[in-house]
Fold:
Amino acid sequence: MSDTRPAPVDVIRSATERTGTTGGLARALDKVFPRHASFLWGEIALYCFVVLLASGTYLALFFDASQAPTTYDGPYGPLQGVEVSHAYASVMRLSFEVRAGLVIRQIHHWAALLFVASIVLHMMRVFFTGAFRKPREINWVLGCTLLLLGLAMGFTGYSLPDDSLSGTGLRIADSVVLSIPVAGEWVSSLLFGGSWPSTIIVSRLFPIHVFVLPLALLGLIGGHLALVWRQKHTQFDGPGRTEDNVVGERVWPGFAMKSIGMLSLTAGTLAALGGFAQINPIWLYGPYDPAASSADAQPDWYIGWLEGALRLMPPLEIRAFGYTVPNPFFPGVLLPGLMFGALYGVPWIERRFTQDHRVHHLLDRPRDAPVRTAIGVAALSVVGVLLLAGAQDVIADTLSVPLATVRRLLQIGLLLVPAASGWFTFRLARSLARRDDPSVVEIRRGDSGGYAERPEASSR
Amino acid sequence: MNDRRGALFGFGLSAVGSVGFVIAYWTDAGSRWLGAALSAALLGFGVGLISWSKAIDDGDAVEQRHSLAADDAEVDALSASLSRTSELTDRRSLLAAVGAAVVALGAMIVVPLRSLGPRPKGIGATPWRAGRRLVTSDGRPVDPGRVGADGLLTVYPEGAQQDGNGAVIVVRLPVEQLSRRTIDGGAVDGIVAYSKICTHAGCAVGLFQADSRRPDVIHRLLCPCHQSEFDPADGARPVAGPATRSLAQLPLTVDADGNLVATDGFDRPVGPASWTWP
Amino acid sequence: MATREGDRAGSVADRRRRGRRRFRPCDRPDACCGAGVQPSRNPHQLSAADQAAVVAFVASLGPGPAIPDADLVGAQVAQGGLLFRENCAACHQAGGAGAVLSAGRSAPSLAQTPPTQILEAMIVGPGAMPVFSGLDESDRLDVAAYVRSLGTGGDPGGASLGRVGPVAEGLAVWAAGLAPLVAATWWVTRPKRARRGSPS
Structure:
């Protein structure tokens, strides 16, 4: 390093006399983070959360969680004189009368979509590189919970403006809750207050959205980062990199500047989206009316796979002994339960088959674990097909293909695509791994009858 | 562009963006300008910091990992500390008592959740009764002439228009195309009424596809949420999509004033099913 | 053939103004496109004067509704919005973007539809559209005024993304949000060249 000057000693003294943190702080500043693009994807999620907290606090200052009726008399002409709830009116006021309100509201909504998207991308990286293996199983579980909380955060936020999409989404959520055997009616009644349309649900979701869930997220994110810090980041294999070291950039100043830079880039991207791309135009959807549902009624993308599952489910239900297990139970409760169960169990399921109890700090490349990679791709393709199903009406309309055809293709796809993509991925990963592996050689019988080793393996 | 110049450019852009945001806010220039200025301020700052960081980057540092596992002495010490737990677990009767108390505490804390909602009852009940008139959203009763061939009208129970389960769609189909049970279910001159609340997940089934002209005859009710389809000519039975149950039919007649009126309530609950439904 | 009221002048004018409709013959009506064919908006084949002449001739053949007068002055836009959401949005979508129906048909976008056609469509129910005779004339004018406001109101939040709602928003966040940020992470972590030899 060229001329580094010593930091002022008296300031350090004065600070540490009160906090006693010199050693720890020095170690923290010297900590090394490995360099890889994919190691910053989790940071995108973290910084989306920062943007969500900041923009959400601003929104909360203007939001009114009451569902009592009022008459809209704001500047948006096509709704003047319409009876709406106070919640809806306050979001309209925020969008049309509070200066900079609309752009901040749109940034908040885009940040919510990006938050979950970056969590998913980050989890894909962790999964496909085997970063969930010992000693990081706990952090995998924390991460899965963060994903769940992110979904809950998104859905409760989507439901707050009390517009037509909000209410329709809540109605569907209620029917999924009602479908739960034995307890469904009670849970629905406790959540929604007994009658439909619920007049209390927004005021209940509000504290959950702005207090309970953010607090839980903050706590778990703290734990998630603390474990990363304590266990030190994983790294890919490479020159000088071993299971016993971390090669990369020191926290101060290089990594810290890059990380704060990522915060700025994330927030800047969201600001551009918030300024130039309209999201959730509640003035078009109108206030919620249980007697009116619009076409293209969709949830935000991260709930889209559940919506797709509801749509692809064949018309079946169980009726026995005077009781019913309604249709939405299977795609709406059972399927996500199984999927999240499998997701949480990933480290233990894999260990069950590999019997690998070693500590891993060096990451696999996806090709190094063809079975894991194939299973991951197959599982993602399930979610992908369900996501497409959640948009089947838009797809049918855009491509001018009959709805029934799209639905049938997706139903067949749900059965075939995971198997096909998994098999293809397995073959691809294995052939890539063999190509890289210097110990694999191809032996051919030559023209003269003898056997000879070929320098490059070309087996498929 | 080298990193130093990149940093200068980034911080400059950021300052310009910040000033621009204040101007845009002051002049109420609208969300596009606000978004543009804010993103310039933030993206510029990010580019500046990252470029600067790259400019001073002097290659990789190496840090050794230390095993997270404790050594034997530490394990023994913790084990010794924890072994004091046996002072508690040896007292079986006290242990049972504290367990019971903890369970009771937990149950006690959960009980007030009961205040959240009433006992579930009347799920799927509607205000429709014999003699209740059908009215449109403006409160006007409906004479059959208002529903033309292939016509669609959304109506509500008179006096209870706000009820979330009460919405009904009234459609008119060619009489000869109605099934026997649809006519028996209370059709008036080809006019039939069904609950608008989808039996699958409770959305409003407002989409009526109607064409009685050959060769393209089609009558379909379609739910815009999950694309369940119902046949209004045959008791609104589900014909495609995830719905398993027909939309409930409201039996109709015409009262002395010539308006449509229900001869009875629905013969079953409306909306999405739950555990206690037959 | 079931005769629907209004299957006369109004509906002829309605068809003419949309341009000639191509009815694609369907060999297997049960399989490929259900029971129906989807009319589409095509270039006009007749001049405005010829259209008017055809309309006048057909109208002379028998009774039927006249071409409605699309005078939207005094129409209540907000009332029209309520009726639109109750009656129209299920097919045409809350923003008027149009949407898919069953049996291979779809409800068209209303972005380019002039008020006269909106009014005619409510009276005659073209194609698979039902007839909205339950709405009286002032109701229909309110709806037409609301539809016009959808087209002229603009999108205060920025690009409309086709007004198809969360599906387009979800695509946008991956393509225009996450993709550039992921590209940025490559730039951020790209190793420096020619650093090793620099004096320290």
Remarks:
- Confidence is low (pLDDT under 50) at residues 1-9, 18-36, 194-200 of chain C.
- Chain C touches chain A through 67 residues (CB under 8 Å).
- Chain C is about 45% helix and 0% strand.
